[in-house]
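Section 5: illustrative case.
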């Protein structure tokens, strides 16, 4: 029995590739999954074998809500697993960046209008 993965790009089965989600889905329906699991060595790391993603540090990678394996160290304080694709930056940092942007925008605008505004001497003439 041959595996479905033989005709597909091998990069999909390396952790961190964009094809990881598809590789996991293909492994779930593959007829050779049992044989692949039997051939999987304990030392394999950073790959997907028989529908299981193995971390480079050893152990099994948790699967994110989006279907990709989380290849970074999972935080034990998190209740849900979020991969690098799903991680949302903190809103507070975004607010500070937005404030900084608008402060700079209005400062430049005041400078530009101050340069082009007529002076009192020009108005009197």
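Designed sequence:
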């Amino acid at each position: 029995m041959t595996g479905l993965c033989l005709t597909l790009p091998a990069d999909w089965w390396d952790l961190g590739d964009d094809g990881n989600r598809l590789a996991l889905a293909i492994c779930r329906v593959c007829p050779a999954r049992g044989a692949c699991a039997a051939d999987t060595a304990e030392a394999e790391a950073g790959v997907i074998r028989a529908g299981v993603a193995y971390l480079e540090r050893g152990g099994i990678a948790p699967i994110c809500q989006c279907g990709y394996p989380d290849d970074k160290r999972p935080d034990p304080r998190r209740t849900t697993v979020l991969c690098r694709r799903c991680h949302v930056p903190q809103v507070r940092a975004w607010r500070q960046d937005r404030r900084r942007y608008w402060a700079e925008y209005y400062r430049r605008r005041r400078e530009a209008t101050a340069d082009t505004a007529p002076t009192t001497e020009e108005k009197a003439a």
